[in-house]
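Reopening this one. Same input as before:
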Amino acid sequence: MNPPRRSGGRRAGRDSRLARLVDSSRFNAAIAAVIVANAVVLGLETYPEVMARYGGVLIALDLLFYCVFVVELGLRIASYGRRPRDFFRDGWNVFDLVVVGAALIPGIREQATLLRLLRLARVVRLVRFLPDARMLMLTVIKSIPSVFSMVVLTVLLLFVYGMVGWALFGAALPDTWGTIGRAMLTLFVLLTLENFPTYLAEAEPVSPLAVPFFLSYVVVAAFLVFNLLIGIVISSMEKAREEEVERERRDDAELLTRLADVQRTLADLEQQLRGRAPAASAGEPPGQPVGGALHKVADHLAPQEAGKRQVVADAQ
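Same output, byte for byte:
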């Protein structure tokens, strides 16, 4: 399982050790495994015979999983160090906080139904660790405005054809075309071509316009509408991918800028130490190079610079 990509820009201002931990592949895989195990426990609790025999064990496991989620949430918040407000810039962090933290609210803990819904929402957190599923959810969100316009167009189409169908078949077929509501419901079922031969056979003896009515509706509604819907989803997916790539490029550029700042700081420090080299060489023990202090500073900063270079390599 490939964890969601963590670009370097998101680590800016975070505790490096905790950030590496909570963004690591092993940590995300472990949390994903706990989420799957939690889903299995939730499923087993729906069997009365299993609950009668192992109910205590399942409840204990659910409590254990919840404790793991609380620890995970605490580590993610702590990884932001002195800037915990940055934790809320990520929508998934806010979702995790609501799902995990809501169970601690006294008013909700007494509501069994709400607790079950919150426990079920924990399973949805698995999407966070699946990049492709995360992209699909983003695609759905991006397509909402266009889909809303499509829904309005579809309702208008159902109303127009419903009025025509009511006028043609309403008197003879009141169960399916007797009112505009029944006619629109019949046409909505026909969007999936369900019982299309049956409706056509019933309407043919009633009006000679039955065949052109149903054929035109199938072509316009069933084929055209669904193809337009597919086009909207594909277009939204392309836009979502482009935005994700652009965001990662901005994060990579920010990381490279910070790395360049570190390199300039090292160069300035090297020049300062070289200027003090004559004075420092008189007090150095035999065998120690004049630039000993410089090497110590470089050795101290090397792991940090190497870590930043590794993040850049991973991002690319």
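So the earlier flakiness isn't reproducible anymore. For the record, The chain has three domains: 8-129, 135-246, 250-275+291-315.
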